[in-house]
Task: structure prediction
Amino acid sequence: MSILQILDIGLAGLVLAVAAWTVFARDAFAAVVGFVAYGLLLSLVWVRLFAVDVALTEAAIGSGVTGVLLIGAAGRLRKLEASGGDDELPGASLRLFAAALCIFVTLVLAGVVLSLPDPGPTLAPEAARHLAETGLGNPITAVLLSYRSFDTMLEKVVLVLAVVGVWSLAADQYWGGAAGNPRGAEPDGTRALLAQVLPPLGILIGIHMVWVGADEPGGAFQGGAILAAMWMITMMAGLTEMPSIRSRLLRLVLVAGPAVFVAVGVAGVAFASGVFAYPTGFAKPLILFIEAFMTLSIAVTLPVLVAGPPKRLRQQ
Amino acid sequence: MNDFFLSAAGIILFTVAVGLVRVLSGPTNADRIMATQLLGTGGITSLLLVASATGVRGVDDVALGLALLAAFAAIAFVDNVAAPDSDTSKGDRTE
Amino acid sequence: MNVLLDLFSVIAICFGTFFFLAGTAGLLRFPDALSRLHALTKADNLGVGLIVLGLLPHAGSLLAALKLVAIWALIQLAGATSAQLIARAIRRSG
Amino acid sequence: MTAATLAGFIGSALVGLGLYGLITDPQPIRKILGFNLIGSGVFLLFGIVARKGAAAGFAADPVPQAMVITGIVVAFSASALAIALVLRLYEVAGPVSLRSEHTSNKAEK
Result:
């Protein structure tokens, strides 16, 4: 057994232990902390599966942005729930039945894993064959923005729908106000330092990830999530604040990604062979053009989702 | 040399994993956050070692992304969980 | 020259690993939250620093080396900030 | 056993664990965590399908990987919406729980 295999098995045990902790922990906050650690470990597993693009996404969204969302929610729930709340588990027989069901599901899935053909069916040769036509070097970016671009466009629409859903949960009197914390009168020094040093570097890294995403691991999702995190840190330090949900600019940026995507897709009818087709030779510049707007939209959508519905009165 | 890198990665990962006992036992929530902070640092370091040993492209970018976000959990914790009295100055201002 | 560089890497990484061990031992064994925080910052600081130092001779390109140093600097920044904030939170909660 | 098969077992176990949490944990936020565990387990299963489909010089089939990337983003937005719903419910209705009917009847008396 090689050292790498020992490492893999240890990592697997660790991931499962932390996942079990998030399920069985008594305290909700402890469970959430476990989930943040879990996200980090999961991106290590993705690296071991040679899925570096996925590892990047999991690192930025799974452990970073989701961590802030969940810890914020756990903190707010703890405050709202003055009595300590209800953590009574269902009866022993129900739990036993649930455990049996879950073990059964796990065993069936493990059986499926064992019976998978190796090498399995694959679309990799197809993806490779047409890669030259797109001008890209990263097959995953090609899948996301060329072969299956319709899926990716709809996924951006899901993000916009989630924002609409979150905003519509605002109490009546706060409609038109802003979410999140107001700008601090005197920002706390430690946080302000971090929020001033980190973003220039983070913005550089985020844009780097989008740019190299055409040929190397990276892309609009990963870069956008990093940029989103940078905006979030300046808000957490009280240096910037979430704009009012009435802000034209905010709404425009939120829909810019999917809108540009649809526009380019429809233009394909006139200039190429059909909807969501790119004219020959122009695929790469068009893909980079769409990715630029998508990155911008993702960078704004994620913090808006984390901030939640508006909680402050509309300013005159 | 590669085997040495991998062994070091393994030792670091399991060391910080043992530190996760603090997530279980606490006693305070600050201890829990500290343990994840240590796991984050150790995870990034072992990622760098594994990247150097296996030579998979782009892994250093994963480590870079994780390093950028390393302080986020701690800041979110301090803002939301550790400061019950300062709540009025934060999210729920209704004046 | 190569043997010397390898030796340098081995020594640096061994010391870095030692600091991770020490940081974890401190996190588990120290009696109060503030001393545990102190132990944690040692792993952040010296552990990562020494291992990055050990990996530098093996970085393939200048960009890769720069990224390694940037990762170390970012962990420093994150570690320092969060240690400060957590310490303040511990003191406030008494 | 390869790293891919091992990851497949992790994925299967994660689906089971998440399902158990989703069924038995009474607090809504814990159910959201359980749901996310199921999701990441399914993503890992996609990951091994991708890894087993390594061909044409790629270390893994790019199509499942692209689906996982969109999946992670969609899972995040679903969690954000779910959390906003739970928080709003708490604000309007006070502490809420999703425990079984039997015990909640007792609490009302």
Q: What stands out?
A: Chain A is about 70% helix and 0% strand.
